[in-house]
Amino acid sequence: MSDQAIQLFRASIPVFQALSDPARQDIILLLAEKEPLTVNEIAAESTLSRPAVSHHLKILRDQKLVEIEQKGTQRYYSLALEDAVSLLKSLLATVEEECFTKQGEENFDES
Predict the structure, then answer these.
(1) Within 13 Å and on the Cβ side, how many CA atoms surround 5?
(2) pLDDT for 53-105, tens place per residue?
(3) Could you tell me the domains of the chain?
């Protein structure tokens, strides 16, 4: 495996960790359907408490998966997936390229 692939895997770990929790997955899907939403609006649509929603939003925000817009006294959350999607696409492309290159070499060696 190339250094680039290893670096991309390592860089992707926090994103995978953030996305691995079902509650955060539910929040992302809810925001995809009804963004932007406040913490209270997300909690009302969820089985989670308001503090639990805030905790999960912080994790998602730390990984730049959601962003906040302040409107008056309200903070509205919406998706900001561009950076994470770009990172994961790079990872997939690199792994795919290396797998096909390796398979091609193996097929060539068998000839």
Answers:
(1) 10
(2) 999 999 999 999 999 999 999 999 999 999 999 999 999 999 888 887 766 66
(3) 3-102 (1.10.10.10)
**Cα–Cα distance between 53 and 61 in angstroms, integer?**
12
d(CA 97, CA 94): 5
Alpha helices in 1-111, H assignment, sequence order? 3-19, 22-34, 39-44, 50-62, 82-110
DSSP symbol at 37: B
Q: pTM of the full predicted structure?
A: 0.82
| Distance from the Cα of residue 23 to its chain's centroid | 13
Cβ atoms within 10 A of the Cβ of 33, count?
9
Report d(CA 65, CA 83) in Å as an integer: 8
H/E segment holding residue 55? helix 50-62
CA distances from 16 to 69, 75, 85, 106 (A): 25, 26, 11, 31
